[in-house]
Design goal:
alpha/beta, Nucleotidyltransferase, domain 5, 2 domains, five-stranded mixed beta sheet
């Protein structure tokens, strides 16, 4: 069996996906490590072992992500190439969602917005808001430095204690806005708020900002489908925020299965597409 492996080498996590020459997916794996090089080698070794592969069966390794540049040589003697991360995001997002056209939003440490479709793949912009903001501000606001711990803490929080909603500032009915819509993130800060309330407010701030940037991008690019990918798609309340934005703005937010592996999938598919 001939296998092509795509590896998304991030700053703290590495995602890996394998495909056969017939484009059949054979496995997915995520590995966390402080060092991207260690993470990439460890992920590959474990992936090969877990899927009962031999090194001779791996035809190519396709790297992408911020840590890909640190791996300049063939890995374990296997031909190794690098592919543009935005191309991988676009290809992976479309493949996992089953869409042929849309805005692919990769939510990681920061957020990338990629327009993908029949006319090609274009990086239209990015924002320095994402998991990195959760970690940085979470440490200062809540005394919690681990991303997973911040998310768990947020699940116990009450947004009503920190966020100012439309109903808090107006009793009038506004036809285009629900009374529960956020008027100002962290604009309320009631006495007695807890670190869990702050964590909930922080998570909400990040998702609402990414969501509204996506809405504006869709209007500019004249698309309706937004495919959400990346690590932040695993947060429990992510669908709640984007469902509200869908109802308000008519944008179709999609979180495909295995969304965290989209960029790794796109890396492998970029090579397979060129082999046609």
């Amino acid at each position: 069996m001939s296998v092509v492996i795509g590896i998304d080498v991030g700053g703290s996590t590495t995602k890996i996906v394998g495909y056969t020459a017939m484009r059949e997916q054979i496995g997915m794996l995520k590995v966390e490590a402080a060092d991207p090089v260690t993470s990439a080698y460890g992920a590959l070794g474990r992936f090969i072992n877990d899927n009962n592969l031999s090194l001779s069966e791996v035809e190519h390794i396709i790297l992408t992500g911020v840590g890909a540049a640190l791996l300049s040589k063939d890995i374990y003697g296997i031909p190794t190439l690098c592919v543009d991360e935005f191309e991988a995001i676009g290809l992976g997002g479309l493949a996992l969602s089953g869409k042929k056209d849309g805005l692919i939003v990769s939510m990681g440490t920061g957020t990338a917005f990629v327009r993908a479709g029949k006319e090609g793949i274009t990086h239209i912009g990015g924002a320095g808001i994402g998991g990195g903001k959760n970690v940085g501000l979470g440490a200062k606001l809540c005394g919690v430095k681990n991303f997973r711990s911040i998310v768990e803490l947020a699940e116990k929080g009450n947004l009503e204690k920190v966020d100012l909603n439309i109903k808090d500032i107006s009793t009038a009915v506004i036809s285009t806005l629900s009374p529960d819509i956020t008027a100002s993130n962290f604009g309320k800060m009631e006495d007695g708020f807890s670190s869990a309330d702050l964590a909930a407010g922080l998570i909400n701030l990040v998702f609402q900002t990414i969501g509204m940037l996506s809405v504006f991008a869709c209007r500019n690019e004249k698309v309706k489908d937004v495919v959400l990918t990346g690590t932040l798609t695993q947060v429990k309340d992510v669908r709640k925020v984007f469902d509200m934005l869908r109802q308000m703005h008519g944008v179709n937010f999609i979180i495909p299965q295995h969304a965290i592996y989209a960029t790794a999938c796109g890396a492998a598919l970029s090579y397979l597409n060129k082999k046609k």
